[in-house]
Amino acid sequence: MTLDAPVDLADHTPPPESGRGRLRRLLDRNWFAWAMVIPTVVVLGVLVFFPLVQGVYQSFTNLNEGNQQSEICTKTLGGGEVCKPNPKQAEFVGLDNYKRILTGETGKFWLQFTNTIAWTLACVTFHYSIGLGLAVMLNRRFKGRGLYRVLLIVPWAVPAFVSAFAWKFLFNHDFGLINALLTQVGLDPVEWFNHRWTAIFAAVVTNIWLGVPFMMVALLGGLQSISGDLYEAASMDGASPWQRFRNITLPGLRPVSASVILLGTIWTFNMFPIIFFVTGGEPAGESEILVTGAFRAAFEGLRNYSLAATYGVLILSMLVVFAGAYRRMLRNQGEVF
Amino acid sequence: MSEILAAEAVATGDATEPRKAFGPPPRQRRERSPLASLALHGTLVLAVLIALFPVVWVFLSSLKPPSEIRRSEISLFNSPNLENYKSVLLDTPFPTWFLNSVVVAGFTMVIGISMSATAGYALARFNFAGKRGLMWLFLITQMFPVAILIVPIYTIMANLGLIDTKLSLIIAYCSTAVPFCAWMMKGYFETIPRELDEAASLDGLGPFSTFWRVILPLARPGIAVTAFYTFLTAWGEVAYAIAFMQTDSHLTLGAGLQQFVPQFNQRWELLTPAAILIMVPAGIVFFFAQKHLVGGLTAGGTKG
């Protein structure tokens, strides 16, 4: 929602301060501003940037559960401890992890990549279109609008993992509501989690249900900032409802849309709990996306930390490339950002 | 399936229908035809039903005896009783997990609000060296997948001896929630006229007390949204919780709940009441924040 701001920042510098007194006062206040941001900066530095650097480093090693210690200590009979250097310590292996992942030697990178793209595309498209539709409706004045709004935001208030379990329950093969309804209308019940795409479908439905309220609320905010005079002027000029939507609503929403689509894409790409709980990777890891695949590599079975770190670096690079391309595209369309 | 397809058909319908029926701007509402009105309410009612039915269904199921939950026929009520709630509260570690989650989410909320409010205010009001870079950093952290951070953060926590403690989760959640919240708060503070700060400083208030006594009270809607966001982030997070927490009695809800539905012998009669109980605090926080949600988010979105 606030994502348009940095873009905004890039293109116009703050207006020059007028007068010396004001400038000096700002300088005097510098310490104060820093005092206010320092706690955040420190926490981010220690817990985001330091780990990031470490993660990138780990992706070039063969670190796993077995070789993470630099020393192996064994208890002696006398109660003391003898420590010897670990003979099989984690070592630098260069681009080995990347090679093994990208050629499919370890893990199922390309399968998970395809899943992630399909998952993100489907989720964001439906989030945005449904959210926009509902926002446009709620932006009109009618009785009961407030009540509709509150009720429609309910899925947002449900924690993601609870929604995941709720939908897993609904999609249950034997006693889920959805299969019960299918049987009711004379169709065969579906084994949702026995096929790759039906499993992903179930997860996508869950995530759509979960994510629409955010889009709706953000877009509703954007709609409310469009001046009503524009619509009035347009209808006086004889613009049809569709023309008004195309030429006033959509352009007016563009800053908000640009932010929420970028943010939504990033969030969906990294969405962990839905896939993890709804499909659990069934059947046999075929419905896994990159983030859940990386998590399983790191914390299930023999913990392969370096593999997970490599996944992480790959995911991050994809998102950075996407965000860059997205901004460039907006700029090429002549957006005033 | 038909239910879902219908949902999507309607949903895509939602996106196109209002375009056709976009009709007059709000103030000329007398002109809306009864038919358009019917379509509007019809679509919204359907959307509300879709939004509510999973929650309602889980609630109804939580009241059924275990054998009835496993029946494939649809029945809304079937000898409803509170036995499932009793067994989840008395015979499982659920209450402990719940308490753990309350502590973690509560602290995350308080720490998250204080950090993001101060940082957001500084970003909104002052020009200082490094401000632009800082804002970019806040933004970029949004892109970091949990996959790249979780292992190094795990190592750091292990070195500090914090693995399997609530503190490790609070710290991890704050670091994910604060950058976004700082952005949100910045957007909100920018909607509060600067003249107020200037007036306060003319009246002799220092920068800290201006912030504390003048601006913060005015920023209540923004704070409500931040509270909502941080609380739900912590309340609903699972990846860190599963990775960091090891002892059964230290688990939070997200990590604990999956124990009810392992691959085999899934105990939905425990999961459904637990799910309902988890929604209650989230619902309460949501209820207090919801009237500010649109305003708070808009401020961020349009004024950035």
Automatic annotation (TrEMBL), chain B:
It is found in: Cell membrane. Pfam families: BPD_transp_1 (PF00528). PROSITE patterns: ABC_TM1 (PS50928). It is a multi-pass membrane protein. Belongs to the binding-protein-dependent transport system permease family. MalFG subfamily. Its main location: membrane. Residues 11-30 are annotated as: Disordered. It comes from Nocardioides gansuensis. GO terms for biological process: maltodextrin transmembrane transport. This is ABC transporter permease. Residues 98-289 form the ABC transmembrane type-1 domain. It comes from the Bacteria. GO terms for cellular component: plasma membrane. The chain crosses the membrane at residues 35-60, 97-124, 136-155, 167-185, 223-243, 270-289. One of its GO terms (molecular function) is ABC-type maltose transporter activity. Keywords: Cell membrane, Membrane, Sugar transport, Transmembrane, Transmembrane helix, Transport.
